[in-house]
Write a structure and sequence with these properties.
Two copies of one chain form a homodimer. Helix content of chain A is 27%, strand content 31%. The first copy, chain A, has helices at residues 5-17, 30-37, 41-53, 83-87, 95-98, 120-126, 157-160, 177-184, 203-208, and strands at 57-60, 64-67, 74-76, 110-117, 133-143, 146-155, 189-199, 217-226, 231-240, 244-251. The structure holds a DNA duplex (19 and 19 nucleotides).
DNA sequence: TAGTGGTCTAGACCACTTC
DNA sequence: AAGTGGTCTAGACCACTAA
C-alpha cells in the first residue's frame, strides 16, 4: 500500500475514469487519501497537483477536490461567418460572439478601442510597416459569467476611421457588425485564412479567462480579404481549449 | 526579498522572457535561486514546477533546469493532400507523414494493422453500427528521434480488404499511399471535413509522444469523402501542440 | 468558527548523468 | 565519484469559505 505520488495519482485517475468519482463530485479529503495509501499528506498533495495539471480536477478550499465536468464543446464551422447574417442588417450580429452561443446582453462583452503599433504578425497580415499605428478592437467574450475567449481585431486606420467599428460604445456594432460596416464602405469580405495552434496560457491569460490549471488555450489568427485580395482585417483570438472545436470542410486540391 | 513561490516563478519567468536565460540555457542551480530569494529550496522547486507546467522549462537531472526552445511550428495547409502528389504515383507518398517534413526512413514510423470495434465517433463517421468491426491502421510518426504525432485511420472492411492498405509491412503504402489505393479501387477522395480541438495529454499519450510537462495535444479528426458523398476514411491524430499549426482558406459562405 | 486546502520550512535520502 | 534535481516525511501556520 505504501507508494509514491505517481501511484497515488494513478489510483485516483483510474477511480475517476471508472466513474467512482463522477464529474462534479469531490474526492475524499486529502488526509483520508493519505491514510488509505499510507503516505504523507504532502505526497497526496503532489498527486492531486498532478491531476490538476492534467485538467482532471480542481481543488477548492473548504469544498474539497472536485472532478472537473467536461462542458460540451462548441463546434465552430465557417457558416458562422455567412453573409446572409450580416447582409440582412441584423442588429447586433457578431460572428465572434456567436462563438459563445447566446445572444448579447449588456455587460457580456467588454471592449476597448485603441491605436496600437502593429506587431510583426499584424504588420505582415495587413501589409503595413511593423510598428505602424493600427486600430485595435479588443474584447473579452463571456458565456454568462464565464469568460470563453478574448478576441482582438486590427484594421488599417484609413479603412475604419470615423466608422462605428472604432466607436468605443459597448455592445454590438450597429450596421451588421464589423463586416456589415466594411461592406457598406465598399470592402465586402469574401475570403478568409484561419490559422490555429495551441499552448499553455500565460499567467495573464489564465487570469482574464479564469482558466483552471491544466487548461490549454487555442490561438486563432484570421485574415479577412476582399474580392480583390486585399486584407481588411486581422484578428487574433485566445480561447479556453475545453470549450471549442473548429471544423472545416474543403475540396481536396488538385 | 523574502517571497512566495509565485514571486519566485514570476521573477524567473520575467528573466526568461527578457532574454536573460535564452532558450537552451539553464537556470541557476535551485539552491542558488533559493539563496538569492531568501527562501527554502522547496519553495524554489515549486516555482520551477509552475514554470514547467506552463511549458517554459524542463528540469533535467545533473544538467539543471533548461529553458525550452520553441521549435518552429510546421504549418499544415490543405495542399498537403493535393491529388497531384498521389496521382503521380509517387512511391512513399503520405500526406500524414509529410506533416513531419522529412522523407521516410526505415524505423521512422511504426504501424499496426488490426480489426477493432468501432467507437461512437468512428461509427458515426463511417456510417456503421457502433461496435462493428473496422480496419484500423495506426502509426506513430517521428521527426528523427522525436515522435511528433500518432495517427489512426479507420476503414470499412469491404473497402480495403486485400489491398496494400491493410498489409502490415512497415513503410509507405505502395501505389500512391492510402488515397492512391482508394482511387485505384474507384473511391477517389474528393472532399474532407477536419475538426480540431486541444486538451492536456493523458499520461499514456505523454509517454508515447515523449511530451514534456506543460505541453498540450491537438486532436485532429478527419473524414474523407468520395465525389458521391460516401465517407471512405475516418482518421484521428494526436499531435504535440508545440510543433503544429493548421491553416485553412475558404470563401465566406452566402 | 470550524474545516478544508495552501504554503513554507527543515532535513534525509534517492536517482540519474556527466565527468 | 560528484553534483544536480527528485521524492518523501514532519510539523507549523495561513487563507478561504460554507455552515
Amino acid at each position: 500500500m505504501a507508494s509514491g505520488y505517481r501511484d497515488v495519482a494513478d489510483a485516483l485517475r483510474a477511480a475517476i475514469e471508472a466513474g467512482k468519482y463522477p464529474p462534479g463530485s469531490t474526492l475524499p479529503k486529502q488526509d483520508e487519501i493519505a491514510a488509505r495509501h499510507e503516505v504523507n499528506i504532502h505526497t497526496v498533495r503532489k498527486a492531486v497537483a498532478q491531476l490538476e495539471a492534467e485538467g482532471l480536477v480542481t481543488p477548492i478550499r473548504r469544498r474539497g477536490t472536485v472532478v472537473r465536468a467536461r462542458p460540451p464543446m462548441r463546434r465552430l464551422g465557417t457558416e458562422r461567418y455567412a453573409k446572409s447574417r450580416w447582409k440582412a442588417g441584423i442588429i447586433g450580429f457578431s460572428a465572434d460572439r456567436e462563438a459563445s452561443g447566446v445572444p448579447w446582453k449588456p455587460g457580456d462583452q467588454t471592449q476597448t478601442i485603441a491605436k496600437v503599433p502593429a506587431d510583426d504578425a499584424i504588420a505582415k497580415a495587413l501589409d503595413v510597416e511593423p510598428g505602424a499605428e493600427v486600430y485595435e478592437r479588443a474584447r473579452l467574450v463571456k458565456d454568462g459569467d464565464q469568460p470563453t475567449h478574448t478576441l482582438a481585431s486590427y484594421y488599417r486606420p484609413e479603412d475604419v476611421e470615423d466608422t462605428p467599428i472604432v466607436d468605443p460604445t459597448p455592445g454590438p456594432i450597429p450596421g451588421g457588425g464589423g463586416f456589415g460596416v466594411l461592406t457598406s464602405k465598399g470592402m465586402e469580405p469574401e475570403r478568409m485564412t484561419e490559422t490555429i495552434h495551441s499552448r499553455m496560457p500565460t499567467p495573464e491569460e489564465a487570469e482574464t479567462l479564469e482558466l483552471p490549471a491544466g487548461e490549454p488555450v487555442m490561438i486563432l489568427e484570421r485574415q479577412t480579404f476582399t474580392a480583390d485580395g486585399r486584407c481588411v482585417e486581422f484578428a487574433r483570438g485566445v480561447h479556453a481549449a475545453s470549450r471549442f472545436a473548429w471544423t472545416y470542410t474543403f475540396q481536396i486540391p488538385e
